[in-house]
Amino acid sequence: MDRLLITGGKRLSGEVEISGAKNAALPLMASTILCKGETVLRNIPNLKDINTMSQVLANMGAAISVEGGCLKINTGSLVNKEAPYELVKTMRASVLTLGPMVARFGYAKVSLPGGCAIGARPINLHLMGLEKMGAKITLSRGYVVAKAKRLKGATIFCDISTVTGTENLMMAAALAKGTTVIENAAREPEVEDLANSLNAMGAKITGAGCSVIEIEGVDELHPIDYKIIPDRIETGTFITIAGITGSNILIKNCRADHMLAIVEKLRETGISITEEADGLRVVGPPKGTLHPADIKTMPFPGFPTDMQAQFIALVCVAAGTSIVKETIFENRYMHVAELRRMGANIEIEDNIATVRGVEGLLGAPVMATDLRASASLVVAALAAEGETVIDRIYHLDRGYEKIEDKISKLGGDIRRVKAARA
Ligand code: EPZ
């Protein structure tokens, strides 16, 4: 397994370009199932999860090609309406093929995603919504089988706002007969980006980005050429990197309007974040002067759970105590044990982490456990004294495109050591 070697303590400078959003790309790729012909998606990041979704679609019979940052997907000749366990278990977002397949073919067989490191992450709300639209759902041997002559519009209330649940149901409703209303819908920018792309395909969706989304079903959708939004979590990650290393960097190709909670909270720690013509100018405060701050992770527009681990790494060296409350996932503190190995002073009780700032962190061998936990170890290592070796960075590769190249370009001392071929 590849690992990252990072020697911390260096001040960074220069510019970093943010890649397209992984969590916008994945539902948009699944939505190509809804229409025949070749869809062109632009600004797609080159990530492991994107490759997995491509495998899922190719396994169904889609023709896929990558040309200069463009992903071309033609689902005109899909022959297999299944998403198999061996692919879904590596990436739970494969479940996003369920809604589009039922909508287009009236049949879908998708492996239940199973658990994940950060929590049980059930999909009951995805299935409840499809049943309300008339799908017959059966669970057998770890698979969901969904059947429907033609889905019909329905009013669906999600008692928890679910990002991929909202996306699955929005895609299913786009070709249903009649109008669907999703109440307590997820409001994330990636949900809105999917709605915009579906409307470009000919769908009739209003309210995306708010908590009530209305979808008037149509009979057919057509392929599009569409550029996806930038990644707000990658942007937030680079702001914490600049903050913890006392650096002055320019973050380009980002959307500050997608990350007001992140920007406000990180400003509270003393990081200067200002909008310039071609990006966000981020200046971290001098070593030892970061302020502590408290966060509670919430659905958008609140502080996102996907930034919780990176935030904890940052405030490990703040001048005071920060309280972090994780309300979305039940087991999203696995980075804490690794940060403690670097000298962090963090106590966990139930879903609350108490982070008492320390003078500085010390480099150590640590292990990535999930995508954002691995990002938090990179943040910490860049400020730690001495060398940190981060193992199992395949977790990082799921959501960050060439992060070591981007950090090296900023002057960071980071390199990837390829695992010896087994
Ligand atoms: C999406 O996951 C993101 N993934 C996650 O990003 C992100 O952490 C999460 O939203 C929350 O923002 C993608 O978009 C591909 P949820 P998702 O359904 O849709 C519960 C990353 O780091 N729930 O919004 O799976 C669930 O257990 C990844 O990029 C149900 O109970 O998350 C959780 O507690 C990690 N039943 C809460 O809702 C359901 O049917 C929110 O989950 C669905 C969800």
Sum this structure up briefly:
The protein is an alpha/beta fold and about 425 residues long.
Q: Which SSEs are present, and which pair or pack?
A:
Blueprint: E1 3-7, E2 13-17, H1 22-31, E3 38-42, H2 48-60, E4 63-67, E5 70-74, E6 82-83, H3 85-88, H4 98-105, E7 107-111, H5 124-132, E8 136-140, E9 143-147, E10 155-157, H6 163-174, E11 179-183, H7 189-200, E12 204-206, E13 212-216, E14 225-227, H8 232-245, E15 248-252, H9 260-268, E16 272-276, E17 279-283, E18 295-296, H10 308-315, E19 321-325, H11 334-341, E20 345-349, E21 352-356, E22 365-367, H12 371-383, E23 387-391, H13 394-397, H14 403-409, E24 413-417
Parallel strand pairs: 2-15, 3-14, 6-7, 10-11, 18-19, 22-23
Antiparallel strand pairs: 1-23, 1-24, 3-5, 4-5, 7-9, 8-9, 11-13, 12-13, 15-17, 16-17, 19-21, 20-21
The structure holds ligand EPZ.
Ligand EPZ binds next to helix 1, helix 5, helix 6 and helix 12.
